[in-house]
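Repro:
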Amino acid sequence: MSRIRFLEGKSGDNAANLFNNCLYMKIGNIDFESNPLFLAPMEDVTDSSFRYMCKQFGADMVYTEFVSSDGLIRDAHKSLQKLKISDYERPIGIQIYGHLIGPMVEAAKIAEQSKPDLIDINFGCPVKKIANRGAGSGMMKEPDRMVEMTRQIVNAVNIPVTVKTRLGWDEDSLIICELAEKLQDAGIAALTIHGRTRNQLYKGVADWTLIGEVKKNKRIRIPVIGNGDISAPEEAKERFESYGVDAIMIGRATYGRPWIFRSIKHYLEKGEILPEPDVDERVRIAKTHFLKSVEVKGERVGVLEMRRHLSAYFKGLHDFKDTRLKLVTENEPEKVLNLLDYIGKHWGNGK
């Protein structure tokens, strides 16, 4: 394991300088630079090593994978593991979900003990096993209970509480404009809106029109964060300019591309499109991510949980099938690093 060492990245330096020069938005007592970019919470993706990578590339705010309230109350190992955060990730939010008010309040108190910068309530997850139980976006069917749950959580903890939700359950129940006011009145510090209904899942195109309507509402005083279909710098710039959102949250487009934060920030500042990282840089990024995963989770778990990420970093390479198979089946860290070196030699500039 002589090669297993921490590779320090410098990609977040420019973001830090911007932060010092241009404060723009606050969530509670958390200050953000102009046009901040947030990493969306995603199950089996936004673990601590991936959050680290996104921070290195300039993400202004990151979130844990969403955590089950039932799991926290039962002291379930997987749920408790998700509460582990580090100072280098700050500001960071812990996102919780559930369908019963009492357990959600208790879960928020448990999560607060890990000292996150805020608690985020997941009222947006559309996955059937969650939504059909009344949790996640399933709460869109019971907006009064959603608001009461939010109010009780706000009153139960001493850190900011935010909400992530959708436009409504379906096209016949687009309740977000009215709901936003009620959630604000319940005491939340910011609201993230995904521009789809629950029934859309992730299909079709995200509609930012109602997100913009919420932001334009003169009664809304809290930050409004837009989410949905941001995969390129030009799209981020257009959403900021057209809809006036205070921040943008990026989800699926970060998978295998944590550098998207760097690309968007560069475009917003300079008006230039950065080229996508070449294979050599992707190898360096993958190594840093891999070593961080092993450092945080140990060799066995660190290797296993990196497989999905390593595959994503090299998506689209020609004649890559056999090497990809090795990447997602190898168990020894040293051999994974050797495979990454091999990718650099055979597909990189030194081939």
